[in-house]
């Protein structure tokens, strides 16, 4: 008779692993993969019925055309951790807006073809960008911002821009970039966040958003699945974690459904807005909970549309328009598969086809919308916002606390990144760092 080499877990003895990773977004799968590479047994627990979190490749509702409902664009030039994954697995990339684009801008209610600013406005823009780039040079992107003397920059984007006193159209031009980079109002998010991303982009204002145009050819979800499969981890989907308890020897992670698992170490890789909803024992310290409870203002509605009547190389931007940016990303049997980035103050209902057609016509008067699709990350219970956009006071007050280990727990996620805060590369950066910490803990 064969004897099983492990005893089935009893209700009082949770099944044991070397490490448990909570959250199966990019940060979680990277942590699991690195732990797997180190020969460790890993349990990856994910609340949703899929991996990927805030990245998700899925078909446009009612159609076969795939869309990226969440994070999409990367650059192997400036995103080192993403470049590592591209190199390791040989993922194919495609470029958005390749070739000549038909540029349109709407500022102050006026729609123009080409670049919208002229004459004296160009000097105003130059002066404003000089101040922005000068401030970005004060930042060391590899050091948490609260360990640098940067508190004077941790003010709202609106306060920083308004202090430069640009004319109305230059201000709107800058606000459009800020809206696109955040999905928040200029009054709601921190200039130190914006400057950190500009600094991470080699101090380029344009490059921070405009030069990150690569996407994964076969969809970003395939990337997540590949990394997760390579980890060798056991994966529990549809399993929201309710409690994480640690003592001197081990961590016990319990799911909402009552199941528990234990390990000498764990990685918490959920969005920070979700920390207050998990019961930590002992409780998380105040310098983690305070910024987590503040949440963040990022609520971009990444609205996918089937549009007819617009040029297939349209690249339109605006402020005071419902969409801060709009461009086609491909074609469907009925029209162009077009993306509209809808940032506050717009309260456009993306499911109201007539309202969305009016929104499209602010930038392309010839357009007609046939269908729309959107993932609402701001109301998603496991995201509670789009990409993390720290409000004023968080980075200069708490940045190092966000990613700091607590006992046997390491913390990962784009939200706690040091370099690409809120970006896919930041998620990978922190997954790698959390795995290193966990491996060191396991080695004693
Ligand atoms: C619309 C949109 C557009 C974006 N565009 C870009 C872009 O172009 N480029 C870019 O670099 N970044 C972009 N981002 C940001 C980027 O997608 C995210 O920052 C990154 O994917 C976050 O990864 P993460 O692993 O830190 O968190 P997440 O992806 O949020 O993963 C966390 C995981 O934890 C799970 N979880 C939550 N609570 C629990 C619980 N209690 N128990 C178990 N599991 C739980 C969640 O379900 C989720 O799967 C975008 C984001 C959005 C939403």
Describe the structure.
By secondary structure, this protein is an alpha/beta fold. Among the domains are: 15-54 and 219-295 and 388-442, FAD/NAD(P)-binding domain, CATH 3.50.50; 102-210, Alpha-Beta Complex (Polyamine Oxidase, Chain A, domain 2), CATH 3.90.660. Helices cover 31% and strands 21% of the residues. The protein has helices at residues 26-37, 80-89, 120-136, 157-163, 168-182, 191-200, 205-210, 220-231, 286-294, 353-363, 394-402, 424-442, and strands spanning 15-16, 19-22, 42-45, 57-59, 66-68, 93-95, 102-107, 110-113, 214-216, 234-236, 241-246, 251-255, 260-263, 265-268, 279-281, 301-308, 314-318, 325-331, 336-342, 368-373, 409-411. The strands form 5 sheets. It has a 7-stranded mixed sheet with strand order 8-7-17-18-19-16-20. Helix 1 (26-37) links the parallel strand 2 and strand 3. Helix 1 (26-37) runs parallel beside helix 8 (220-231) and helix 1 (26-37) runs parallel beside helix 12. The radius of gyration is 23 Å and the shape is globular. Mean pLDDT is 95; it is low at 1-7. The structure holds flavin-adenine dinucleotide.
């Amino acid at each position: 008779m064969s004897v099983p080499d492990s005893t089935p877990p009893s209700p009082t003895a949770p099944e044991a692993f070397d490490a448990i990773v909570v959250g199966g977004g990019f940060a979680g799968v990277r942590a699991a993969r690195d732990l797997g590479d180190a020969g460790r047994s890993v349990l990856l627990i994910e609340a949703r019925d899929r991996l990927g979190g805030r990245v998700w490749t899925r078909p446009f509702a009612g159609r076969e055309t795939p869309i990226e409902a969440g994070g999409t664009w990367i650059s192997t030039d400036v995103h080192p951790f993403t470049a590592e994954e591209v190199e390791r697995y040989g993922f194919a990339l495609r470029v958005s807006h390749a070739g000549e684009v038909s540029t349109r801008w709407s500022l102050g209610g006026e729609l123009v073809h080409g670049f919208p600013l002229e004459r004296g406005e160009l000097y105003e823009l130059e002066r404003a960008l000089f101040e922005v780039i000068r401030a970005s040079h004060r930042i060391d992107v590899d050091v948490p911002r609260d360990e640098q003397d940067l508190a004077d920059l941790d003010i709202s984007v609106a306060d920083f821009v308004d202090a430069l006193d640009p004319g109305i159209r230059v201000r709107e031009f800058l606000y459009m970039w800020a809206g696109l980079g955040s999905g928040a109002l200029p009054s709601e998010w921190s200039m130190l966040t914006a400057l950190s991303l500009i600094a991470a982009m080699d101090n380029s204002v344009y490059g921070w958003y405009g030069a990150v145009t690569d996407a994964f050819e076969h969809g970003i979800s395939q990337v997540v699945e590949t990394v997760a499969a390579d980890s060798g981890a056991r994966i529990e989907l549809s399993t929201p974690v309710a409690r994480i308890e640690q003592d001197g020897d081990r961590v016990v992670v319990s799911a909402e459904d009552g199941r528990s698992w234990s390990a000498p170490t764990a990685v918490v890789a959920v969005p920070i807005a979700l920390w207050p909803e998990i019961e930590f024992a002992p409780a998380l310290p105040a310098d983690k909970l305070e910024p987590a409870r503040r949440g963040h203002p990022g609520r971009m509605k990444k609205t996918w549309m089937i549009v007819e009547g617009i040029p297939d190389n349209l690249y339109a931007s605006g402020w005071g328009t419902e969409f801060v940016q709009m461009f086609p990303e491909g074609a469907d049997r009925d029209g162009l598969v077009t993306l509209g980035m809808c940032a506050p103050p717009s309260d456009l209902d993306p499911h109201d086809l007539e309202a969305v057609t009016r929104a499209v016509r602010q930038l392309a008067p010839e357009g007609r919308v046939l269908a729309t699709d959107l993932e609402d990350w701001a109301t998603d219970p496991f995201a509670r916002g789009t990409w993390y956009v720290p409000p004023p006071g968080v980075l200069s007050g708490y940045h190092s606390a966000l990613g700091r280990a607590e006992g046997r727990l390491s913390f990962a996620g784009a939200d706690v990144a040091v370099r690409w805060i809120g970006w896919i590369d930041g998620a990978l950066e922190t997954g790698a760092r959390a795995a290193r910490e966990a491996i060191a803990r396991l080695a004693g």
